[in-house]
Design brief:
The structure is a single chain. The longest helix is centred in the N-terminal third of the chain and has 13 residues, at 5-17. Helix content is 62%, strand content 4%. The chain has one domain (5-96). The chain has 5 helices and 2 strands, in the order ααββααα. By secondary structure, the protein is mainly alpha-helical.
């Protein structure tokens, strides 16, 4: 049985809490996410926006930018979900610069 997006987010958050961040472990969890462009229709949150809520609260901009870069490298589509994905990561990058 595959993990839910929320379970994947929890794993990613546990990994990023450790310093230095184990980016290899992060990439392993991220690459196992079956629906990288998942959208919760009730909350209109994506897997990245759910994760960024935690990342923004806990981490500096360097880690947040790296998280976004890794999502994009894994195939996170900025035009997915009728464009809802776009604002999430671009807003995140603007916030940290």
């Amino acid at each position: 049985m595959s993990e839910t997006p929320y379970q994947s987010i929890q794993k990613l958050c546990r990994i990023i809490k450790t310093k230095p961040v184990n980016w290899v472990a992060f990439d392993q969890v991220l690459s196992a996410v079956e629906e990288i462009n998942w959208l919760d229709e009730n909350t209109e949150e994506t897997i990245l926006s759910e994760g960024l809520q935690v990342f923004f609260e806990l981490y500096d901009g360097t880690d947040t930018a790296e998280v976004i870069r890794r999502f994009l490298a894994q195939g996170y589509d900025v035009s997915a979900n009728e464009g809802r994905n776009r604002g999430i990561h671009l807003g995140g990058l603007c916030w940290i610069t």
